[in-house]
């Protein structure tokens, strides 16, 4: 059955106020799909449908809702209902929710949270934005090294329901210092009488609370972990970053990079939920920068006005040269930015990247120049020097463009800037100016201007 048809049927049940049937139908769906359905409803209907959900399911669905729908439900909920929702949320989900809420709503939510939950939320909100501490969860399974395997399994059974994950358990010593890690599989395969200290793996890979969230995600990806421990300055275990946190970060960072590569300021809201003025504000700054820098191209053309007047044919090849140069530079910058993003390329690889791009550009430039030379000879008989001028310019432009495109993201990284800003629009603007200078310099040498 089509999912949209299901949503229509659910909406029909809601309009008929068949709450029992609606509840049963909703419970057959995944929490994410329920959240999507609620997001399609207006405020009053979303609140009514949400209130039909059982306590445990309601908290899971609430964590998946868009901030706007969360605010509607919080505004309509009683203090008792709000306390139940907040208490059942994982801490990282609660923190994510509060970061998108107005101050008055945050105040009310914290007021209805238990003292323990309130303390955890306040602690998480103090961590720097985009740090491992800001995305970690405090609901993890910890064991003592002196426990037997039997005691450890019993502990997991007793506390696992409230933990975000039980597949990986962390062994802590006095003052909650991280000592080791042990998987449920290792515990199940060990003898009941063995100590956890005999089964665990020491030398745990961890991150500090202030570590950049991208670095935490890279470690999860590199080692294939399901979760990554987060420790404070004294080596005490304070939380874990899980795979679902990593997926959220990857989506967020990828979106941010795409927007920067398209010369836009990053936006945290989805496109359809972002206002027109907000979209314009995010775009106008970079467009102004590129427009002003594009004036350089006009200045170069004005400087060579006499050469253009003497041989108007030269103008017809400018779009081809500048477009090819911009495309060549964008290819190189895209590959290098991607390599930096997935940690395949580091600043130490600068000489290797430069040497590789020089060789690639030489091969590509020779082919493009040869094709252009032959085409121009056939198209404009007797204009061999013009064809040679365009071909040489094409060769030089491709070499310069690919070198610039490969090197600029690394320079940005060295200057602690986001390499994504050195993408297509900026590269194209720079290469346009450089290609025009090369073009007219070669033309002055080879042609009677």
Automatic annotation (TrEMBL):
It is found in: Cell membrane; Membrane. GO terms for molecular function: magnesium ion transmembrane transporter activity; metal ion binding. Acts as a magnesium transporter. SUPFAM superfamilies: CBS-domain pair (SSF54631), MgtE membrane domain-like (SSF161093), MgtE N-terminal domain-like (SSF158791). It is a multi-pass membrane protein. Homodimer. This is Magnesium transporter MgtE. Belongs to the SLC41A transporter family. Keywords: CBS domain, Cell membrane, Magnesium, Membrane, Metal-binding, Transmembrane, Transmembrane helix, Transport. Residues 136-199, 200-256 form the CBS domain. The chain crosses the membrane at residues 284-304, 360-380, 386-408, 420-442. One of its GO terms (cellular component) is plasma membrane.
